[in-house]
């Protein structure tokens, strides 16, 4: 508080507001759609002064936001959106981020906020908050603070106490519309927590909650934070802040007010799962199991493949989240460009691996290894014997993968990436059922328990700390995507482990799969080009040049992971792959706060991650016997 008082002194030039006496109590009313869930209008109007922003209306919203207005904090753009006129009877605090002068005609109704408040606030926020906070914003704006920050500091300078309404995160803000009025008032499009336009948005909201004299639980439940005015805070002898606020300490990311009943249920599930794991340990010798390799998932090649796959999953999720944070929650380039490049990369790398393996085998074996009388063409035909039959079996897999890639494009355009990552865990159940049905394999009872616990942990991860479930409009698409992914994965395993594919190496099988996926993409692209026209060479070059370094890293990781999946399926199985894939939640929940911004770190997310981790350990137990 004292640092802000010194670093961002708010001064008003001329006008009636500059000459006004100090207000005893003030209400600062945000433009947030979270206000629609409250009926705080009468309470707001009871204050000595009410501060509002830009073009926010009161007519028609009196029950929610009140009707009284003392100060309108705005600039040129806000005034233009309001029709060029300030509300009658309201004083205007003119704060324009572009430095535009006070609009003509406002006269003494307007007082300009002097001293370049936007620059001073930005410098203060950068001094107070760790650098990784700024990854919460997007590339569309630099470090331009919100006009709400100017209004809050102005109110704290002019008022003895300030009640800020929905200027901080609350239990409804994540699902409420961005504004309570106008173009951004539609639910499910842009939430009140969205920071598309200002990098400092999250840090500002966290700051008001920190400075509030109201208990954190109450701020989160009601959306109202009470702050003392600067004049009420003695700052003599107060040292400047030591260190900066880390992202992991964010009140925005760790919502307050977790329901005790929810924690009780989660704790009971953890206790039961842990108890079942202990029973399995008692029934089976764990050390003997580790050394025996009784299951394919715990054999040396399978364990290595699963470990590499887990590291890739975590790395890819973190890369995607970082790229999304720099690109409005989406890739910097269309997935329609990324996916074909990924498939082409898989084909090229598989070709190189196939040729390298073949050359190494010939150099190692020597000329004597070749059958007598066999020429090069004959050897090649023998090496690819059965490939046509495998290609026929692989065709449905290629079609499923391509269909899922198209569906993913739709889902990624409509679902937040972190929400998509959570809901795709429903592929766990799909994989287990299809694995049994398609491959005629038996899954031991304890592994069904593991699948169930893993699914339970994934479901817990979708809950908010208040027990609410946020259901995205595109949820059905995500579920269908999870189903298609499971079907493709299981049938891919069936082909890889089939008798027809036994003579072929894993690189040969991959070449067949990626050749078919590329062929289907080429066919689809040709059809699109015939209907809507083919892009010019200059357009293709410009599109490739626009791919950001982060997108290239994602492409490379997806290529590597695509090649790893087939090896996982060769040495383990689809259920093991899916359960280990779910273990990424355990790593993500602890690693992500130190790498990216868009992540949760609360009792629910940690508890759900532990459930998934226990499920992985249960699955690793060998069959009883």
UniProtKB/TrEMBL annotation:
UniProt main location, coarse: Golgi
Name used for this protein in its record: beta-galactoside alpha-(2,6)-sialyltransferase
Enzyme Commission (EC) number: 2.4.3.1
Origin species: Zooxanthella nutricula
Cellular component terms (Gene Ontology): Golgi cisterna membrane; Golgi membrane
InterPro entries: EmrE-like, Glyco_trans_29, GT29-like_sf, Nuc_sug_transpt
Family stated for the protein in its record: Belongs to the glycosyltransferase 29 family.
GO BP term, pick one: sialylation
TM stretches of this protein: 261-280, 300-320, 421-438, 445-463, 469-491, 511-534, 546-566, 603-621
PANTHER family tied to this protein: BETA-GALACTOSIDE ALPHA-2,6-SIALYLTRANSFERASE
Topology of this chain in the membrane: Single-pass type II membrane protein; Multi-pass membrane protein
Keywords: Disulfide bond, Glycoprotein, Glycosyltransferase, Golgi apparatus, Membrane, Signal-anchor, Transferase, Transmembrane, Transmembrane helix
Gene3D superfamilies associated with the record: Glycosyl transferase family 29
MF-aspect GO terms: beta-galactoside alpha-2,6-sialyltransferase activity; pyrimidine nucleotide-sugar transmembrane transporter activity
One Pfam family in the UniProt entry: Nuc_sug_transp
Cellular localization per UniProt: Golgi apparatus, Golgi stack membrane; Membrane
Catalytic activity: a beta-D-galactoside + CMP-N-acetyl-beta-neuraminate = an N-acetyl-alpha-neuraminyl-(2->6)-beta-D-galactosyl derivative + CMP + H(+)
Enzyme class: transferase
Top-level taxonomy: Eukaryota, Sar, Alveolata, Dinophyceae, Peridiniales
